[in-house]
Amino acid sequence: MKILFVTNDPLNQKRSGPAIRCLELARVMAQRHEVTLASFEPSDLGVHIDAEGMRLMPDALRHKSDLHVAARNSDVVVTQGMVLARAPALAKLATHLVIDLYDPYLLEYLAHAHPQHPQWGYLRQLYRLNQQMVSGDFFLCANQRQWDYWLGRLCALGRLNTDEYHRDPSLRSLLSVVPFGLPAQPPQHTRQVLKGVVPGIAKDDFVLLWAGGIWQWLDPLTVIRAVAEAATENPRIKLVFMGAHDPNPNNRAMAMANSARELAGQLNLLNQSVFFLEGWVAYEERQNYLLEADVGVSAHPATVESRFAFRTRVLDYLWAGLPMILSQGDDFGDLVDREQLGRAAAPGDVNGWKEAILHLARNPSAMQQARSRLRAIAPSFYWERTAEPLLRYCEQPYKTQRLSGFRQRLIPLLSSGYDIAKGLRG
Fold first, then answer.
1. Per residue in 182-205, pLDDT tens?
2. In terms of residue numbers, what domain contains 86?
C-alpha cells in the first residue's frame, strides 16, 4: 500500500509530540508499505528519512500541487491536528482518510484561548474538528478514556450508525486505541549532559526531570514550590526543565514558561535548585538527559483536559526506566499508583509533592523496585505493538459509512456555528 502521513509540525532533530508520533508510526508502516511523510514546515531530516526507505516532503504547503498528487496517488492518508484546516483538499483527494485524534487539542484550547477572541477561537477550533470527524474513515486515539470521549463526539456527528454497527458491534473498526509508543531499542548514554556539566548540578545530586514542554494546561508551579521546600531538607534535590520553548514556530507562545521562571526567581531557586534548559533538546539526544535523571515529573491542575490527556513525554520515563512523580487524575497518574512506578500526588498539593520527592530521595530500595516494574511494563508500549490497529487498517483499508445525506445537512449547520463565532469576534 501507498501511505501518506501529513503533520503540521516540523520533522526536525528537535521535534515535539505530534511530529514524533507521525514519524514513529510511519516507520512501523514502512516495514511493509511505501510511505511518504509530508510536513508543513521545513525539515532537517531528509537524509535520515531517505535512509529508512521513506520519502520526505518538507514545507508541503509551499508545494501544494505535489502534496495533492501524493494524496491522490496514496491508498491511505493519515493526518493529525489541524492539517485539514490548512490543506482541506486532502479530505477530498484521499481514497481512505485516517484522522489521528491522540491529542484532544480542543480541551487544551480552553486553557490557552486566543487572548482577544476566546469565544471565536474556540468555535473555530470546534468547527474545524467537526469537519475532520465528518470526513474521516478511520480514527485513532491514545487511551481508553479518549476512546469514550471521541466515541461520544462521533455519535453526536452521526458517525455511529447501523452500517458501522453491523460491520463491527465494538466500533473498533471506526475508532481504535493507538497509544503513543516507545522504541524497542533501549536508551544508551553517549555523553554527559547534566550532572557535573550544568553549573549548579553536581554529579551526586538527585535530579528531577520535567522532560516535556511547559504548556499552559500544565502545572510546573506546584512542583517548583515543592522543590523549594524539599531542598531546605535536602539541598541535593534539583529540578530541570528540559524544553522551555515550543519547537513549532507557528504556535502561540504560552505564558506558563515565563511564570515558572519568574516563580523560581522569586523563591531564589533559579540556577540553584531549579534549572531551565534553553531551546529544545534534540529527539535523539533526550536519552542522555533521561539516563542522568533520577526521577521524571509531570504535573497538571484538576481540569477536564487532564482527564483525557495522554502525556507523551511520560513515555520517555517508561523507556528510560525512570521512577516518576505525577499528578493524580490522568491516565498515567493512575498507572503510577496502580503499578507502583513511583508516587502520584493530588493536583496542586505542594506538601504532597514535597513528601513524594523526599520519599524517593530517601529510599533507594523504592527507586529500584519502581525501575524493575518499569522494565516489565515498557514492552507493552513498543511502537510495533501500539501501532497494530493502524497497521491492520492500512493493509485492508475500507470506507466507513455515514447517515444518508447527513454530511450535506451537517456542514451548513457547522458553517452557521462558524459564522456565529465570527460575529462574536466582531
1. 999 999 999 999 999 999 999 999
2. 2-181+384-425
